[in-house]
Amino acid sequence: MKLFVYHTPESTPTDLLPDCAVVIDVLRATTTIATALDAGAEAVQAFSNIEELKRQSNSWSADKRLLAGERGGEMVKGFDMGNSPLACTPKVVKNKRLFLTTTNGTRALQRVEQVPQVITAAQINRQAAVNYLLETQPETVWMVGSGWQGDYSVEDTACAGAIAQSILQQSDVSKLKLFGNDEVIGAIALYAQWQDNLLNLFRLCSHGQRLLKLDGDEDLRYCSQTDILDVLPIQKEPGVLVKR
Fold first, then answer.
1. How far apart are CA 165 and CA 188, in angstroms?
2. pLDDT, tens digit, for every residue of 199-219?
3. Phi/psi at 167 (nearest 5 deg)?
4. pLDDT tens digits for 20-43?
5. Can you tell me the distance from the alpha carbon of 207 to that of 110, in angstroms, rounded to the nearest whole number?
6. What does the DSSP assignment read for 17-35?
7. Which of 50, 67, 99, 201 is most buried (most C-beta within 10 Å)?
């Protein structure tokens, strides 16, 4: 297995695809996806375009669908819910499909939707992603951060570092063979620096600051927890994620 970290979907190579892609959007899309599936959602279907989401969701009965999403951190007007994982309770999402669009995470999913294996990871389900990679042993793995409108987001890189560090600790592969690019080394170093204080890191980072202005500190607290859910979202068809 060889790991590669890309800070944004725009920074991924355009002339090849990996054997497996791990999409990361800690604040908050992939945290929300994991939480929704753990709470009993039938699936989460991701869209980068709001109008396409509305068109496809119309083919589902109203009692079996939820329109979920945000732009700039705020709920899309007319939707059932925003992008807060705290809203994904069993009472709200059980047996329903979430039609989800976000500023960043759904664009990352769209970028890698043709990869043979696509999973999503966040800090809350980090070990579930690690276990899958150790079990399936894909030859090449891209960990794709979602960033913010094409720019770097520190929280996604920290999560990629958490995954890479755990794989390194649990396998007998040398660093030389495991690390595919310099970003993996940087991600591990970042996570090692902040692993005992992720909440403060999230409060400091630019997207954390945006969420704090929207009274999102409880979301930051939830998103900063490590390995609290044993659930792995996996793509069963392009853009559609289910619980493995």
1. 6
2. 999 999 999 999 999 999 999
3. -60, -45
4. 999 999 999 999 999 999 999 999
5. 21
6. --SEEEEE-TTTHHHHHHH
7. 99
* SS3 at position 4: strand
- pTM value is 0.96
Those residues whose C-beta lies under 8 Å from the C-beta of residue 215, and which sit 6 or more positions away, are: none
Percent of the chain with pLDDT over 70: 100
What is d(CA 171, CA 179) in angstroms, rounded to the nearest whole number? Answer: 13
CA gyration radius, the chain: 17
For residue 175, what is the enclosing H or E element? helix 175-178
Length of the chain: 244
List Cβ neighbours of 190 (8 Å cut-off, separation of 6 or more).
154, 157, 158, 161
Type of residue numbered 173: V
* 3 state DSSP class of 198: helix
Q: Using one digit for the tens of pLDDT, what is the confidence trace for 84-141?
A: 999 999 999 999 999 999 988 888 999 999 999 999 999 999 999 999 999 999 999 9
117 CB-near residues (< 8 Å, 6+ apart): 19, 20, 21, 136, 138, 234, 235
- Which runs of E-coded beta strand occur in the chain? 2-6, 20-24, 43-47, 65-71, 74-75, 97-101, 117-121, 140-145, 233-237, 240-243
Distance CA 21, CA 152 (A): 18
Residue whose pair of structure tokens reads 């899958």 in the numeric block: 132
